[in-house]
Structures are given as C-alpha cells and as structure tokens.
Amino acid sequence: MKIKMLAGKTIEINVDLVKERAKCNFNIREVTHILDGGEKNTIQRKKIEDISLNDGQSRDVIPEEYLSPKERYENAVKKSCIYARIIKTELMNMTGLETLGFNSPVFRRIADAYFKEVTPLLAHFGMFVPTIMGQCTPEQLAHWLPRALNFEIVGTYVQTELGHGTFIRGLETTATYDPQTEEFVLHSPTLSSYKWWAGGLGKTVNYCVVVAQLYTKGVCHGVHTFIVQIRDEETHMPLPGIRVGDIGPKMGYNTGDNGFLVFNHHRIPRENMMMKNAQVLKDGTYVKVARHEKLTYGTMVYVRVMLVNEMAFNLAKAVTIAVRYSAVRRQSQPKPNQPEPQVLDYLTQQHKLFICIATAHALQFTSDWLYKTFTSVLADIRDDKIDTLPELHALSSCLKAICTSDCAAFIEICRFACGGHGYMASSNLSMIYSYVSATRTYEGDYTVLLLQTARFLVKAWEQVEKRRPVTSTISYLSHAFDKLKKPWDGSNEGIIRAFQRVAAGKISACINCIRYHQKSGKDFEDAWQLTTIQLVAAAEAHCRAVIYDTYYNETIRLTASSSPNVKSVMEQLCTLYLLYWSLERTGDLLRFTSLSEKDIFDLQQRYEKMLAVIRPNAVGLVDAFDIRDEILNSTLGAYDGRVYERLMEEALKSPLNAEPVNSSFHKHLKPFMQGKL
Ligand SMILES: CC/C=C\C/C=C\C/C=C\C/C=C\C/C=C\C/C=C\CCCCC(=O)SCCNC(=O)CCNC(=O)[C@H](O)C(C)(C)COP(=O)(O)OP(=O)(O)OC[C@H]1O[C@@H](n2cnc3c(N)ncnc32)[C@H](O)[C@@H]1OP(=O)(O)O
Ligand SMILES: Cc1cc2nc3c(=O)[nH]c(=O)nc-3n(C[C@H](O)[C@H](O)[C@H](O)COP(=O)(O)OP(=O)(O)OC[C@H]3O[C@@H](n4cnc5c(N)ncnc54)[C@H](O)[C@@H]3O)c2cc1C
C-alpha cells in the first residue's frame, strides 16, 4: 500500500494501482475534458459533484440490499427529495450554461450516488417534463412546465398497457370527448387496456401523461396525449374513477415503483389534452395541426437519443470497476517460480476489457453527435420542416437498439472479468447490468426498432435505384452499384468503407428477397415478414457502419489540438474498435468484400498488438472517465483499489453477522439434524 493525498484527504492506494498510474503515458485530464465535451463542462461537473456529494447525504447507513421492498422505496423517495432539491438549486445557479439543463449528464451522474437502482422520479425527469415541453401549446406550457420544474406536481409517462406496449396504435384506453361538459372521459374498457409499467406510477406521482385513443363526435382519431391528475395534491389519495398501484418486484428498477392504472369513466378538462399537434375544439371538432402524424411519438425519440448517452456512462462505470479490479487481482502461475501476474496481464482479459473502454468512447461520441442531430431536427420542426424527421427516427431507433444491446453484453463481460467477486452485489456490476438490460426492451424493443430502421433503409434503397439523392447517413448506398469489389484495405477508412459495403450488401439482399417473394405471389406485407430476420441484420449492419464512421471522424476532430500522446491513445482505441468488429464479423466481410484468409490473419495480429500497446494505459484510461467512488458504488472498482478490505467491510454489514447463532438453528436445523423433525 502507498499513501497518497487525494482531494485533501490522505488515502491508502493499492501498490499495483500506483504502478499502473505511473506507467500511464498520457494526460488523463485532457481525455476527461474530451469525454465531458470540454474543460468548462468538467469544471462545472466537478463543482456540482462536490456540492451534492461531499456532505455524505447520498450515503445509506444500511446498504439497501438489506431493506425490505417497502423500506427501499421509502428510502428512495427520501433521497429523491434531496436529489431533486439539488437539481432545482443548481439549475437556478446555472443559467447561461447551455450544455447543462434539467436532464444534463451531470445530474444524471450524481443520481447514481443516491440510487443504486433508480429514483422514483426518473420518469418525471426523463419523460413527463420532456413530454410537456414537446406536446403542449404555449399556453399549456406556461401552465404546466413551471409546476413540473418546481416539483409542485410530479408525473410520469403512461403509455404501455397489459395487452400492448410495442403496437401503440393498438392501445385500448379511450378518451371520449363530451361537449356537454367540455371534458374528456378516460376509460379502461378491458383487462388488456389496464395501464402497466409506468415508472413512479405505483405510489409516487400525482399527475401523468396518458396515451389514449381519442374519440370525438363518434370518430376515433388514434392515440393522443393527455395530462391527467390521478392523486389529490394534498392527501395523495387516488381520485374517484382511478385505480392505481405498484406492479410488484422486477429484475431491477425495484425502487422505481412501476405501476398500473385503471380508469373508470374518469373525467378531465378539455384543456388537458396536449394540443400542440392536434386539437379538439369546444364543440368537439377535431383539428390536426402538425404535418407529421408521428410527432405525438416525440418523447420516445427523445428518450431513445438520451439512452445512447446513458449506455456510454453505464459501460464506463462497469469497465472502470473491471479494469481497476483486474490490475489489483493476481491469479495463477503461467511460469514456474514466477509471481502470480495481475489478471490484466492476460491477453484474454485485455480482449474482454479494452473493447469495453473503446465502446464507451464510441458510444459517448456517437451520443453527442446524435444529440446534435436531434436538436437540429427539432429546430427544423419548429420551422415547420419535417423532412429530416424520418432519418432521425431511423437513426435513433437503430442506435438505441444496438447501443443498449452491446452495452448489456459488455457489462456482463465486465462481470465475467471480475470472477466470483464480480457476482457480489457490492461489486455493483449486477445492479448496473439489471438496469441496462431493461433498456434493450423499454422505449421500443430491440427487434421492433431495428425493423423501423429497416423500413427507412428499404425506402432509401429504392431512391438510390432511381438515382435520387439520399441523406448523409445513407449516402454510402450510392456506391452499392459499383460492380467491382475493391481490393481489401485494412486502414481505418478502408475498414469503415468495407462495413458500409456490408450494410449495402445486406440491404440489397433484403430487397432481392422481398421482390422474390412478391414475384412468387406474396403481397408486400407477407414478403416483408418473410424477410425480417435479414432486415434486422441489415439494420444492425447499417447502424454499426454509422457508429464506426462517427467514432472515427469524431476522434480525429476532437483530438485535433490534443497533446500527441492523448491523440495516440484515443486513435489506438478507435483502431482497436474497428479491428475487434472486423474479426467479429469476418463472415460478413468475406461475403461482401474481398477480404482473404491472409487478411484475417493480419487483422488478428494487429488486434493483439494493439491490446499490448494499450495495456500500460489501461488504468489511466478508466481513470479518465473520472467517475467518483460514490457514483461507482463498488467494492472492486474504487480509486484506491482496497478491494479485499472493502469486500470484508461490506460482508460485516450483513444482518446475518449481527449474532453468532441465528435463531433458525435452534428452531429448525438442530431438531432436523437430531432427527426430531
Ligand atoms: C437514475 C437516473 C436518475 C435521475 C435521472 C436524472 C435525469 C434524467 C436524465 C436522463 C433521462 C433520459 C433518458 C434516460 C433514461 C431513462 C428514461 C426514463 C425512463 C424510461 C423508462 C421507459 C419508458 C417507456 O418505455 S415508455 C413506452 C415506450 N414505448 C415504445 O417505445 C413503443 C415502441 N413502439 C413504437 O414506437 C411504435 O408503435 C412503432 C414505431 C413500433 C410502430 O408505430 P406505428 O404502428 O404507429 O407506426 P407504423 O405504422 O409502423 O409506421 C408508420 C410510419 O411512421 C414512422 N414512425 C414510427 N414512429 C415514428 C417516430 N417516433 N418518429 C417518426 N416517424 C415514426 C414509421 O417509420 C413509418 O414510416 P414509413 O415512412 O411509413 O415507413
Ligand atoms: C423497466 C421498464 C420500465 C418501463 N417504463 C415504462 C414507462 O415508464 N411507461 C410506459 O408506458 N411503458 C414503460 N415500459 C414498457 C415498455 O416500453 C415496453 O415493455 C416495451 O416497449 C416493449 O413492449 P412490450 O412489452 O409490449 O413487448 P412485446 O411487443 O410484447 O414484445 C414481445 C416480443 O415480441 C416481439 N415483437 C413484438 N412486435 C413485433 C413485431 N412487429 N415484429 C417482430 N417482433 C415483434 C419483440 O421483439 C419481443 O421479443 C417499461 C418497461 C420496462 C421493462
């Protein structure tokens, strides 16, 4: 152990970690600034982290694993109020800082110091407020937004029902306009129409955005959004006509009180229909305002965009834990009479972990780029231009699907990399995994969203066939008709072009398959269904090509004025990422490019050399994510590497250790062992 001063405190640091940090050859702060989107953001983030975490209010006295479900929820509500107060105060102090807002990555990061699972207010921050911002008229906005931002009301987003989640047009809850009273009557006509899943609905919120089928003058106009009060603002009792409760234990999100909601002819004022995109006049006349009918789905697009950033952060946490632990952990004896090596020195361990570091960078840069695209499309929509929306929908759908899926898979690999101790709840890897695993399903299931992107790609292909211009992310399709396979080029640019060829080849194969089925007499819908396995694969290939291109270009752009070693290490990670996926997808490359067996051998050699090049900087790279111990919440991943001490300290907190003999011994085990039971 070595003693080190950190933030004014003297701490003991594991000697292996001290050596690792001494080996690091680049400026860690510089990389942190790049990942944060600039030094100004890092300074701001650290300031808010200090304000909100230094007083210890985020800490639990008893680890929440030992609390009952009810106590865990109550504890989460208590801490949510502290957390929300910090956001309110800091937001007021931060006016003018355009990069930080209500849902800023900074507030997101500190949330993890407060909640091992989630805050019951997550859907208030992530969905209720964004829906108010996106779906209200200016008058409605003036009424609802300040109340929601001040937490005078707390809300959630209630869309999914027992019977339907994916197929929104199939939702059954009705909102029928009554012109006599100028009210909507909300009703749940069947068991399958019961609302199910909304976060915070069970016990926490008093308002919600409800998605329901709008009926007026006897005509159904499809799903629309309504602001519905469900609990009394004083007593918090459910209002008449409302049945609401918690849906019970889940694989994760257990402090999130996901709920059910049943309407029995519940009335709300006409003004509570969110009327930015469509209106119902007092006499019941339906007026469509928006030019694109899917603008009602805007909150989902927003959350899908946010989730990409969410994935980058969660993977950064998991790999920080796994790399630090792998530097501390020593195991086996590959050579006789030699000390046990750090497990990080095993090539196979580097193969598990360095791709996770690279992926966290790739997702961070892709997420920043996607967010910019999102804000630019929002600006277009404000100017009544809706032609950029389909591309945003296609991009956010596939990126949400692939990033959540990759991130869950890589977090599980981080757990494997930590052996048995990775399975301890105190490693925090199981919590991170159960949190991330749900993201592949919610906000649009993986397969469903990739099929949305595939629709866009098939249409784009038809445009390219007609030699019509297409948007930037699919411009590579224009080269799909070049007949000759180009010689394999293993440079970064060459690999990206090769994967664009793979994507184009897969889309082309889907088109051929759909047309083949149509020629055999199938209608388009059936031909589409028969092609869906390939369509999902084509959308995945397209998405990966977008990520490779974005990661590569953003790395060059963001390190243009960096110090040489920072530039090198960031480029090495990007190259590692491209090599890793080339080796993972050799089948695709063999099918659609001129890659040979010899090229695969070369790729493998280059990949393994790159692992060795990155090895000395591995701990420095995860330190650069700059995730405070309070946020990591891990016995294995703390900055000081006191792994075994922390494991023991945590074990001693188990209530089972409070007494030398548990009463069940005398009550059950002893009589059983003595043959008396
Ligand atoms: C611990 C943290 C603590 C504190 C937090 C602090 C701060 C917060 C920070 C960040 C928060 C932000 C986010 C991160 C984290 C979490 C978020 C919080 C909670 C999330 C919990 C989960 C919430 C939910 O799951 S809500 C429910 C979501 N449900 C879905 O996604 C359903 C999926 N289904 C669909 O989207 C659609 O039904 C469908 C797309 C599959 C089909 O729709 P539909 O049948 O109507 O359309 P089609 O006929 O198929 O298509 C017609 C054409 O329309 C096009 N289309 C479809 N959708 C869209 C769209 N959205 N936009 C544009 N165009 C669209 C479609 O492509 C067709 O086009 P074509 O040209 O005709 O082909
Ligand atoms: C933790 C968590 C939190 C949630 N929070 C909220 C919330 O706050 N508010 C809210 O409204 N909802 C919420 N949800 C619900 C969530 O949005 C839905 O569960 C999700 O959209 C998936 O829909 P589903 O459950 O209907 O799945 P289904 O559509 O029933 O999916 C089942 C299977 O069928 C497949 N499938 C479905 N349709 C097709 C198709 N067309 N083609 C091919 N395959 C298909 C899917 O790929 C999947 O494998 C939450 C869910 C979870 C797990």
TrEMBL record:
Chief location category = other
Gene Ontology MF annotations: acyl-CoA oxidase activity; FAD binding; fatty acid binding
Q: Where, by residue number, does FAD bind?
A: 160, 199
At the top level of its lineage, which domain of life is listed? Eukaryota
What GO terms in the biological process aspect are recorded for it? fatty acid beta-oxidation using acyl-CoA oxidase; lipid homeostasis
Q: Where in the cell is it found?
A: Peroxisome
Record keywords: FAD, Fatty acid metabolism, Flavoprotein, Lipid metabolism, Oxidoreductase, Peroxisome
Q: In which pathway does it act?
A: Lipid metabolism; peroxisomal fatty acid beta-oxidation
Q: Which cofactor does it need?
A: FAD
Q: Cellular component terms, GO, for this chain's entry?
A: peroxisome
Q: Where is the Acyl-coenzyme A oxidase N-terminal domain?
A: 27-154
Q: Which residues are responsible for catalysis?
A: 443 (proton acceptor)
User: What residues does the Acyl-CoA oxidase C-alpha1 domain cover?
Assistant: 297-458
Domain named Acyl-CoA oxidase C-terminal: which ranges?
493-674
In the record, the note on similarity to other proteins reads:
Belongs to the acyl-CoA oxidase family.
What is this protein's record name? Acyl-coenzyme A oxidase
Q: Which organism is it from?
A: Galleria mellonella
Which lineage is the organism of this entry classified under, starting from the top rank?
A: Eukaryota, Metazoa, Ecdysozoa, Arthropoda, Hexapoda
Q: Which gene encodes it?
A: LOC113518195
